[in-house]
Amino acid sequence: MSKLRAIILAGGEGLRIGQYKPLVTFLGKPLIFWVYSTLRKLFPVVYLSFKTEVQKKSLEKLLKFYKVNSKSIEFIPDIRPELRGPISGILSAMHFFPSEDSLLVLAVDQPLIQTDLLLFLQEISFYYPKCILVCQKEEHIEPFPGIYPCSLKKYLEEFIKVSEKKSLYRMFQFFLQKKSLLFLKDWNKVDLNGKSFININTLEQLKELEKKCFGLE
Asked: pTM here?
């Protein structure tokens, strides 16, 4: 029986923000705690994708500090650490689970993820079990949160092999050609203001978002 698995991509280097991004504090708590807490409302186990052992140890220490139930967390090591960006984390998770399962993939830097949007994605995935499902804002594609079926693992491996530039944009073009990608444009019915897609890449962005959340602007 197929299952939907919740994955947080936590293997980035955090170059623009100057530190390992999951540990960056937002409104008094680390970014990863916000995303994890939202997922735990829907899933008994949340999976964390990491690239290095140093990252894993940092995450374990942090989760222990916040008294997170160890049974609610599992780690997925990166099988292609030489690849930069989120594609390696997605591929690693596809290898980790059976081909009939699907991944609900979230970025660690989107602390305002809305539960209703996750439920919306989950519902749509029942009707399109063999398609990547991502949201589209006007002309802009939002890769996360998104649904990524493990059955597309061979296609992703093919893309990595043949594409010179292994970006998400190129990956989406590739899957469009394979007729295995669907853009969802009615996401605003469940997330009117698009809070789920607000991501934090710099300390300046973090401070601005904190001010907005506190109602200072």
From this structure: 0.94
User: 88-114: per-residue pLDDT in tens?
Assistant: 999 999 999 999 999 999 999 999 999
- Closest alpha carbon to 136 in 95, 93, 97, 188: 188
Q: What is the pLDDT of residues 28-37, one digit of tens each?
A: 999 999 999 9
Domain covering 4-213: architecture: Alpha-Beta Complex (3.90)
CA 137-116-151 angle, 5° bins: 75
Alpha carbon distance 62, 162 (integer Å): 38
Domain boundaries, the chain: 4-213
Between the two ends of the chain, the Cα-to-Cα distance in Å is 48
Q: Tokens 């043949």 correspond to what residue?
A: 162
Q: DSSP H helical segments within 9-114, as ranges?
A: 31-39, 53-65, 87-96
Tokens of 136: 């589209």
